[in-house]
Design a protein that fits this description.
Chain lengths: ~290, ~290, ~325
């Protein structure tokens, strides 16, 4: 232990390398490494989604195909459930991960240590968000493969449906990420976000028709109205109309869903970013960037 | 209070002290757990909402299901009732078993387990105390789910003998899953990792115990897996009583009851022994309070 | 230019009292100036406001009123420039503020990227710092498996990594073993004297502060109640003049009583009587005069005087007195 090598090293003039890209990459890289250190968790999380697909595959054998076909979702309940479960799980993991890791950073004190570095907080939140989507993509691909290749669930796959599904998917992410920003902003201030995202995810899953066709809700107008407040409801409808019903992007139903999703994104994203900024400013004012 | 007075007080106390019995100790565990639980009011509300949404979800799912397969399996034609009973009981045992292992894990983590076991409380009382509250609170949610279901169309028998029989099967279900919980706890003490066990239990039972579909739907090479789990027999017995007016005197239900009793008789000593062994071995290698 | 300067700096928080929220000033109208290259210590009891000041200087907490400048930059208006000028040591002794599921090296790499340090430079510095803290062998172990002291070392390395002109350190040596604490102090001293780095740190270790700091500020209830060099602070505090005598044998209490018979010597303040040495402190009218007369007197009584000097209150005495007085 001698301080002279360090003093010598620190005397050197060194160039700084300013790169937002490298910062965002570092956030993604570090958090991926952290996640992968929870091996059990990664495996069990994947397996439970896969297991639920298998479960609904068997349950679907009892479903009356005419009920689905009449609503433009094809005839196969397993395909219907596969699209619903895999995408709702995907969204849930993405959204909960952002608020969860912010909460973790606040409790562990690492949010403060990040905040005093030269990273822009926007770049930090971007890194956290992108990381969430990348990891969840792995889960999504996994569950879809279990459905397609193990259970041989038939999906309508061609250029037209895939393009439509891809566009829907992007809009689904954009509009829901706005909600993710809002919850993350609230989490920072109130320190208990999990219940909020948890409830949102539960409502989303129940009201958006993950397990049953949405228009069954019509017999309860207040529930149906509530369901239409969630962007995921429209995304799921469009994804199913294309992937299980075979419709293209410009079929009227799908087109309508996409327009609504664009509207949601345009309205919600600025609000989400505002709430996120409000949350960050508030904890700096309150001095509660770390709670032990 | 000054030192002298406190010493005097303690001396006098010692002379007319009474020993607490097992019942008082278990009650103390329940009171402690209830108070802790109650501080998480937000989560309590969310749990209630969760119950509400799952019952409502299956209401809608039941609308697109055709009942032939259910009828063929002998459960009547009402899918909503079938699913609500299945999910409610599966959740009931899953949450009881998982919270037991979680609480053992966190007691070990916080070091409170060492404190409790260094007091005059045997590990049997400790286990009983840890599990009782989970089953009480689970029962509350179970009944809430059934009541909610009844409000939206779940049809349950009114025959008192069938209800009584269902209650008996449910009691056997509780006892058999306390044993599963203890086995899980023993494993956790040893490997310090609870999630995989609880996970496996949850998903295997959901897939193979016939929670959402009658087991005759499963291909033959998979259906045997359900036979391992007491939940499979319990669900079958409870459903036949509540949905088809059977009683424990009906041969199929009687068979379920016998299987459950055999399971309990065989596994209780094994579970207690396993826990004892795990407990002793953690004491030997000094990892009782390790994290 | 002062490296750190605050004027009228104030921050209020709310605190629950009898179920009602009441505002209290964690930092109350603080004026502070730390010169470039200075090693400056901030002392005060728990809750005095030390950490809040440091966090305001780090741009982590926004002040309610007043100004604060770090390296000439306003902490509210130019936070990016402030952050490029500082290294901050998190005052969390449990080592919580690290990623426990990353290795020591990965933690440092991550922060290096965030601090805009070029990867080649970062690698050299990380190796040097890990070597300094004797952690080469554990560099790739996950932080969660580290002892408290090792976590502190990683946190210290992270603070030093960007090689900033100003270091803000909350209790830098807490949790370190004695040898590492000594080396760390040497390093801080060298950074200040050889490289002209400005170091502001808080501590509860009086000995450390007294040895290391050029100047000290003592805080209580959000206010700075004294700023000066350790020596000056001791002198200010001295209400009465006194000298301290050490002799090489057991002192007889009767003889001590006789000390008062010397011209200009007052009563005995303190007497630590041991088997083979004793320490006696007495009030005097004039120190020089007493330092000349007392040894003669004691030697005349057959005692062997080892040393005699002016008695200064220790920093600890100063601190205890200042922080006990109502602010």
């Amino acid at each position: 232990m001698s301080s002279s090598p360090i003093i010598e090293l620190f005397k050197e003039e060194t160039r700084r390398s300013k790169s937002t890209f490298r910062q965002v990459y570092a956030v993604i890289w570090a958090n991926l490494k952290i996640l992968l250190s929870y091996k059990y968790w990664v495996v069990t999380d994947f397996l439970s989604t896969a297991a639920s697909i298998v479960m609904y595959f068997f349950m679907g054998l009892q479903v009356d195909p005419a009920q689905l076909a009449a609503r433009g979702y094809g005839e196969d309940y397993a395909a219907f459930a596969l699209v619903g479960i895999s995408t709702s799980q995907y969204l849930w993991i993405c959204l909960s991960r952002l608020s969860h890791s912010i909460q973790h950073d606040i409790r562990g004190g690492t949010l403060e240590t990040v905040a005093v570095t030269q990273i822009k907080m926007g770049a930090y939140f971007l890194g956290q968000t992108v990381r969430g989507y990348l990891i969840s993509l792995f889960f999504l691909a996994g569950t879809l493969s279990v459905g397609l290749f193990v259970l041989r669930i038939p999906l309508q796959i061609n250029l037209s449906t895939l393009t439509a599904a891809f566009v829907t998917f992007l809009l689904m992410i954009l509009s829901n990420q706005a909600i993710g920003f809002i919850t993350a902003g609230i989490v920072m201030v109130h320190k208990r976000g999990d219940p909020v995202t948890f409830m949102l995810a539960g409502m989303n899953e129940f009201l958006s028709g993950v397990l049953y066709p949405l228009d069954l809700l019509k017999q309860f107008p207040p529930l149906y109205a509530l369901a239409r407040l969630f962007p995921y409801t429209y995304a799921l409808d469009a994804l199913r109309k294309t992937l299980t019903g075979g419709a293209g992007m410009f079929s009227p139903d799908v087109y309508y869903d996409l327009v609504v999703l664009v509207a949601f994104s345009v309205i919600l994203l600025p609000i989400g970013l505002k709430v996120l900024k409000w949350g960050y400013d508030t904890i700096r004012r309150n001095g509660t960037m770390a709670t032990y | 209070m000054k030192t002298k007075e406190l010493i005097g007080f303690l001396r006098k106390e010692r002379e007319d002290a009474k020993e607490a019995g097992v019942l008082e100790k278990v009650a103390a565990f329940v009171a402690r757990d209830f108070k802790t639980w109650w501080t998480y009011k937000l989560w309590v509300t969310i749990d209630v909402l969760g119950t509400l949404t799952f019952v409502a979800s299956y209401y809608f799912v039941s609308k697109i299901i055709s009942p032939e397969i259910l009828v063929e399996a002998g459960y009547g034609s009402d899918y909503l009732t079938f699913a609500v009973i299945g999910v409610a009981f599966q959740q009931y045992v899953f949450s009881s078993v998982s919270t037991l292992s979680e609480s053992i894990r966190s007691e070990q983590w916080d070091g409170t387990m060492e404190t409790i076991l260094s007091s005059r409380t045997s590990f049997r009382v400790f286990l009983l105390g840890e599990s009782v509250f989970r089953f009480i609170i689970g029962s509350y949610f179970l009944l809430a789910a059934l009541a909610l279901g009844a409000a939206i169309g779940v049809k349950i028998t009114a025959n008192p003998w069938s209800l009584l029989s269902a209650a008996l099967v449910a009691a056997l279900l509780v006892v058999s899953h306390m044993i599963v919980g203890i086995l899980g706890a023993a494993l956790i003490l040893k490997v310090k990792q609870g999630d995989p066990i609880v996970w496996a239990f949850s998903w295997l039972t959901q897939l193979f115990s016939g929670v959402l579909y009658p087991l005759n739907l499963l291909p033959a090479q998979l259906s045997w897996i359900g036979a391992i789990f007491p939940l499979t027999y319990s669900l079958d017995g409870i459903r036949r009583c509540l949905m088809a007016d059977a009683t424990i005197l009906s041969p199929i239900v009687a068979e379920d009851v016998v299987k459950l009793v055999v399971f309990i008789a065989a596994s209780l000593p094994i579970a207690l022994k396993a826990f004892r062994k795990a407990y002793d071995s953690t004491r030997k290698d000094g990892s009782l309070g390790q994290y | 230019m002062n490296a750190i300067e605050t004027s009228g700096l104030t921050k209020r928080f709310e605190r629950k009292e009898d179920g009602k929220k009441k505002p209290f000033a964690a930092v109350d109208n603080v004026d502070l100036a730390v010169e470039e290259g200075e090693l400056f210590g901030l002392l005060g009891p728990n809750g005095a406001g030390k950490t809040t000041i440091i966090k305001i200087l780090c741009t982590l907490i926004l002040p309610d009123s007043g100004k604060a400048f770090v390296n000439g930059y306003d902490v509210v208006k130019e936070p990016d420039k402030v952050r490029a000028s500082i290294g901050w040591l998190h005052g969390e002794t449990g080592g919580r503020a690290l990623y426990w599921r990353l290795s020591a090296r990965d933690n440092l790499r991550f922060y290096a990227s965030l601090q805009n340090i070029h990867p080649d430079v970062a690698k050299k510095r990380i190796d040097a710092l890990l070597e300094f803290f004797d952690m080469e062998e554990d560099a790739d172990t996950l932080v969660k498996d580290f002892s408290t002291g090792m976590k502190v070392k990683v946190m210290l390395a992270r603070t030093l990594l960007p090689n900033p002109p100003i270091l803000l350190m909350d209790e830098p040596t807490v949790g370190l073993d004695a040898a590492s604490a000594v080396e760390t102090r040497k390093l801080l001293k060298a950074l200040s004297t050889e490289l002209g780095r400005t170091i502001l740190f808080t501590s509860h270790n009086m000995f450390e502060v007294e040895r290391l700091c050029e100047r000290i500020a003592i805080m209580n209830s959000g206010k700075i109640i004294a700023v000066d060099t350790p020596l000056k602070l001791s002198e200010i505090m001295r209400e009465k003049k006194a000298v301290e005598v050490r002799i090489s044998e057991t002192a007889d209490p009767k003889t001590l009583g006789l000390l008062q018979s010397i011209e200009g010597v007052g009563k005995v303040i303190k007497a630590e009587i041991g088997e083979d040495s004793s320490l006696i402190q007495v009030e005097v009218r004039d120190e020089q005069e007493a330092i000349a007369s007392i040894p003669d007197f004691l030697q005349g009584k057959g005692y062997n005087v080892i040393s005699i000097q002016r008695a200064l209150p220790t920093l600890e005495d100063v601190y205890m007195k200042l922080t006990r007085e109502p602010a």
